[in-house]
Amino acid sequence: MDKARLASALGAPSAFGQSQFALTRGNAFEARVKADGGAELLRLAHARLDPGAEPPAGAAVPDLSAHGPEGRTARTALALREAAGAGGWTLLDHPMLALDVAGSPAFLEPDAVVVHPDGSWSVVEIKSFPMLDGSADPAKVGAAARQAAVYVLALEEVAARLAPVPRVHHRVLLVCPRDFSNLAAGCAVDVRKQRAVTARQLARLTRIEEIAKVLPKGATFAPDRGAEELTAAVEAVPATYAPECLSACELAFHCRERSREAGAVTRLGRPLRAELGGLTTVEDVLAAARGERGDPDDPAVAALRRAAALRAEALRTAEARACADAEVAALCP
Q1: Contact by Cβ (8 Å): 31, 62
Q2: CA–CA distance from 220 to each of 227, 231, 251 (Å)?
Q3: Which residues of 199-231 are buried (b: 16+ CB within 10 A; e: fewer)?
Q4: What are the strands, taking DSSP E only, across the chain?
Q5: Distance (Å, rounded) from C-alpha 23 to C-alpha 304?
Q6: pTM of structure
Q7: In this predicted model, what pLDDT tens digit does every residue of 201-231 receive, in sequence order?
Q8: Nearest-angstrom CA–CA distance, 234 and 210
Q9: Helices within 57-119 (DSSP H only)
């Protein structure tokens, strides 16, 4: 389903994403890196990923255009197969890959994939955040590594269908602007850890057919349906909102509103939810802090009551101090 359109139909449109200025700047930098048949990009790939190979004097850049994502995916797989046996450098510009996610194909479009002279494959991620003095923001590099790890998994699925099986590198090339210029700088990022974590998460996902079994008969997520019908269909799928959802899911604003109405503590963050144990709502937390509910031997309940007592003591001290200040002010106008 198109979650962005669904969120708009529910009256809670998603508002996250890059600004138009950032998108334009990123597209301009990517075009510069891939200019002249990707000469600069291939130079960085040779220097950072495969310095022992022959320098890329030139490279093949196959046409990957086709009808629809399925057609582009098949064309990309054919181009990878042909490039693996060509014996030279090949640059695939915006290939289309497919990855099985809980029983449904997810179509992915990395910035580029480089085929080395030995037939191995490497993912290239081009980002617009700067690389200052040879290093970039660790949080942004981590996000890029997690994104590239998904592409590596999708490439491995393509490689598994070929004989002999080409090697998919677990070191990806991250290309960023150097300092505050528009010149390209590259570094190799090892994504083995991110790949392993993503593979485990994908393996543990509930299959789509299992989720569909518990949906009410006739449930639909078509955006042209009424808001009441769509709301009932969305609420039939279990979801636990957390603030991190705002940066990753188009339905986050809808789920946040539902979480507020239910008084769920997860809207305050998963770490806090983990600390509160069996207290799942704000009402339960406040009642436990006041001593009206909860097991006194529960560490979470005991901590809440201790915090409430400290707060009350601090308020009494502040009130007494304010009264004393008022008396002094009355005596000394």
Answers
A1: no
A2: 12, 10, 16
A3: eeeeeeeeeeeeeeeeeeeeeebebeeeeeebe
A4: 90-93, 97-101, 104-108, 112-115, 121-126, 171-177, 184-190
A5: 46
A6: 0.75
A7: 999 998 888 888 888 888 888 888 888 888 8
A8: 16
A9: 68-84
